[in-house]
């Protein structure tokens, strides 16, 4: 095992060095770093050219410059010496200072879209596979093909023009006409009945319940001005928590398992009590406190599962932890929503932003409002990044699930009389995860690349923007700094994918 | 992919009893979506080529994509009318300096096609050669070639495309397409190598070797025809993302440059004019999605047609008739080769 890890790291470093050589020379060949100065009409043109040649060592051939750059990179590996030298940009700023500021929003965006894409992609992919050849399946196949063919710059531009401006305009007078609520209700009903499947009666009931719930909720929200003062609230939060508990137990254990139900119930009750008692503390929250609270929540969930115990202690602990996490998330979302009116006031009633990664000079000294600021700046870029990855995960997990569902051990499980739920969740789903881990690694590279375009359209000063703005003038060191971050991330994730592959699939041995 | 389609058709004409080509064609035609996608592609291509012509040859459309006109008709808005149908003077409107937008969009489509075909062809040829040599000879040749592949695969497609396009895009779409093709072969190489690794152990290769066939003959006459399925499918999916790749880097300013036109360039230049002159955004957007979607659907149907397992079973059928079995197990979706994230 240790041999495998060491060898892999060694090979990765060699690949990284070779790739950086290719990249450095390609950039050096393809750009003319003096073009803008040569065409300028400034009186001290020659002087400026000389200064830049000095600054970027342009008098040395590119391979030698690469070696010098590599020497600077190597210094980063010395721990605690703080001697990193990734070169300087044309403006004299060291790349080591440019990168951390640029990385923030890119990392947030890419992480959020990666997590959401995996979550929703797996969900729809598996549902499509279970209901293969149904209306739901074919509509999602068409949707994912469409998303696949939709260039992300197009999606980004459309989100910017329709969703951002449209939602801001909507907030000026947040009333949904009744007929729109009804139409949305019908759409939701149709989707849900397609997922539920079964005979006509079952489908009709599913459609009816969802239609009434969705339209009723929308009409209620519109009538009470929910969109201006959003909150989950002391009524809905307990209901949703309990619904989540029941749903989670039904999915992971089955409702006939008393102990699992008990775990879910206890965690839900603790969560609801916490919700009412914690509000004062949350008002002065810091990100660190939130992190601590999240850990505490998960530990409490695990503990409840452990003490309820029973035949399947592990399963109950899992249910407890996941449920505690979800309820904490709910409480968190509720608290963010409570700050929305204040944020809305701060942004003159137009909260959804179309450019940048934050309102310039906005410092409300309040974690919730600055959190909302980041959220409303990054939500649309994240969505446009999400679109393509989502399509990919849907397609892969659907293909994987269909394949797995046809295999012998699934038939065996069915033959044993296992309920379909357990066959899907316990037997099939876990094996679908194996190929998905490989996809995550490659998808991360694609997401980081896609961020270049998204950041360009939304004018977000992230890493992609750094790359794209530096490549044009031939400013090689920021480009290489960008490359270094991307390549290290790609290689790391590939490595992690290999390891988790081995962890998930006992047939694979790392040697 | 472009070379192999006619050969499928030939095999149908000669009517070999159960050739793979005939089987695939039959399965392809059964799916109406693939056929429709193909027809749409051909129609768009005919429209783009015949309207403004190619090079010195003039098309039926009176305007070209580079001459600004001082006369702005209808405030630059599209004169296209659906009912009663009439094109008017500038069916897609005019841009800010009065160039005919229909001609510009048509030129953009032509460039998309050229870029797609060049990128795909060069990527597939390079990838197949590298993958075939690595998979056939194995040993140190394989290790060296695959490590080179690893090196190139580390750099995200759009990054390398922007770097290459920064130089090649200024010269023109032909050089751009060829250069991008040379930097997009990695996935095809890996897939081809995988196919070759398993095929070279089969009896028919052994038989050919015993009969005294040369390495080149074994590679091209015996193994390669058996690997065409994977190559054609991944090539066609690569083609769809090639269209998007060209558009994306042109949008960033590293692909095709003005005065030449690319769909990505048009969208990038006009995304800020969205509220004022939405047609400058919508027409190129419509055509790029149409192109990419048709190629994707075509590729997807092709994949199903080549995939021996695709129609063999579903959960329902497995429940009904358990003796239908999937034959070979491998990632069905793993044959996809895309740049992703564009």
Counting structural domains of chain B, the number is 1
Major beta sheet summary of chain B: none
The number of E-state strands of chain A comes to 0
Q: List the uncertain runs of chain A.
A: none
CATH superfamily heading of chain B: MetI-like
CATH topology of chain B: MetI-like fold
How would you describe the shape of chain A?
globular
Number of helices of chain B: 13
Order of helices and strands of chain B: HHHHHHHHHHHHH
Number of strands of chain B: 0
Spatial separation of the terminal alpha carbons of chain A = 6 Å
> How much helix is in the residues of chain A?
over 70%
Strand content of chain B: under 5%
**Low-confidence parts of chain B, pLDDT < 50 over ≥5 residues?**
1-5, 311-337
Give the gist of this structure.
The complex is a heterodimer of chains A (511) and B (342). With 511 residues, chain A is mainly alpha-helical. Chain A has 19 helices and no strands.
Task: Give the helices and strands, then pairings.
The complex is a heterodimer of chains A (511) and B (342).
Chain A: H1 2-30, H2 35-38, H3 45-56, H4 62-75, H5 95-130, H6 135-149, H7 152-172, H8 178-196, H9 200-223, H10 233-252, H11 258-283, H12 287-308, H13 313-338, H14 340-346, H15 367-405, H16 408-415, H17 420-458, H18 463-471, H19 476-504
Helix pairs in contact in A: 1-4, 1-19, 5-6, 5-15, 5-17, 5-18, 5-19, 6-15, 7-15, 7-17, 8-9, 10-11, 10-13, 11-12, 11-13, 12-13, 15-17, 16-17, 17-18, 17-19, 18-19
Chain B: H1 4-14, H2 20-30, H3 32-52, H4 101-137, H5 139-154, H6 157-168, H7 173-182, H8 186-199, H9 203-210, H10 215-252, H11 263-270, H12 279-306, H13 315-320
